[in-house]
What we know:
Blueprint: H1 24-49, H2 60-84, H3 103-121, H4 128-134, H5 138-151, H6 154-157, H7 163-179, H8 183-192, H9 207-210, H10 213-216
Amino acid sequence: MSSTLTYPLPVLPSIPDDLEHLDSRYALPHLMALMKNTLVRGLNRVHACAPLVIVGHPALLPFLDYVRSLLAQLNLHLEEDSTFFSANALAEVATTETNPDTTTIRKSIISLTSLVSAWILDESNYCSSALCEGLSFGPPLVTVMQAQIRALTPTLLSPIISHLDLLELITASVGRISEHSDMTFLLPFIVSHHDRTTSTHWPKIPEGCVDMFSTLILNHPGCWQFAPYNPLTNEIQSLIVN
């Protein structure tokens, strides 16, 4: 894997519009960019925090929980990307760019997940340099994401799928992600890794989750200090680790 990018990784371009009010064939790459950007910001935070949280630090175990949960979500996201572009009308445009082969990247994610899980069992073995080295998949991953978003244009999508049919596929994809995710991590993660200056319309939090959000974040209580934004107030958070 090679890339000219380095950490901190750049986020993908997005638009501030309410994507639910747009033709899905125009909205799709922007919707994907918003979600992918939360994952990119997560990788950036892990890379930046890794040298600050050393063996013996009281926040080490919460940090490792944050890292492992992020990696699980990232792996699931890439798996769903492949499913989304393979099993329907979109397979017609599933080229190398629109549906990239991320097998090598996913292997790196799984390998790092195993290492982090071992550190959780015995935190005395934690090594920040090994964690940063394990994040080397980040630059090529973002390079692939950039090409994917550029390729997904209305010109490409409109001839092969209708607005309503694509909307149905997007809804099904969100459902699969929700079904296979730890929602007590995913929802606070998305909120705390989304820059609201780029869009105030996203994410759409399910109605039933809004009132219980302050309780929801208690399932991973130590994780959110590492997020770029406070999940309750949306305020920017520094890299100072408690």
